[in-house]
Amino acid sequence: MMQRREHSRRLRRVLLSIASAGISFVIFSVGAKAQDQPNPPTQSGSQSGQSQPDSTSPPPSQSTPPPQDQSSPQTPPDAKPDQTHDQSQENQDKQNSDKDEKKDDSSNPAAAVVDKTKDVTEQAVDKTKEAAQQTFTKVRDWETEWVVGAYVGRNRKLVPLTAAGREDLYLQQTFLTPGAYLKRMFSAAIDQARGAPPQWDGGVKGYAERWASREGQFFAANSLAAAGNAALHYEPRYDQCRCQGFWPRTRHAILRNFMTYNETERELRPQWALYGGAFGGGVIADAWKPKPRSAWAEGGRGMLGQAAWGTLQNFFNEFAVDINRKLGGKQ
To answer: What pTM value is reported for the model?
Structure first.
């Protein structure tokens, strides 16, 4: 009997232990599930024990508009704050772009130096071309500065010269026109080839004597012609023909070697002073030329030289601008 009681006690203890362990496991599982679930947000009028509004109470006021969605705001097109904001945003973007460009330039200084050097080189080349073109054009514009001397263009009015104007013209035609020196050098070369006068030697010494003789004869002839034109109030300059065509202009060039205008600049008169000066220059040149020679013959040859050289020079004066234009000179 005692053993049975003892066995019953042990059995009850085991059952109580098992029951206690099961109850503890259930309580622990329920508590863990309660901690894992999130707390629901608290709202007014929820089932938290607060009283619901009465059905007889008035509805809420409709004056307050519902809140707008912040993701897509409804802004009127003419809203000034938004325009100001857009302009500010554009200015900010432009400033950022400028900063980026400056940053790119500063990040590559070698490229900036190359571009600057290229620009400077191109400018120097352009200036060099311009200077060369101006120099070349000036060299081609030789008809008035180097060969021809003074003349009156067809588009200019012929005005009588003053005393000062005649003096300047005399100095220019006698001493300052390179073409006159070239003409006398060419005449001396012809005399050298002909051996005239025969008393003078050949070579450089003989050419120098003949050139000096031609120079002195021209100086005397031009001085006498200038004095005679001033006394008679004749026009010493050549005026280009206002006509058209080759032959009319050629006839004008030949005629003006023998005729000139008086003080009216319209009436033609014989070139008394011009050919008188040519004759006087030949007579004076006879003083230093070797004898025997005739002063009258030298004067006559001086007049013939004026007829030939004067016609050629007038022809050149008439058509020099056209010739130079063909060569690309000034228009």
So the answer is: 0.57
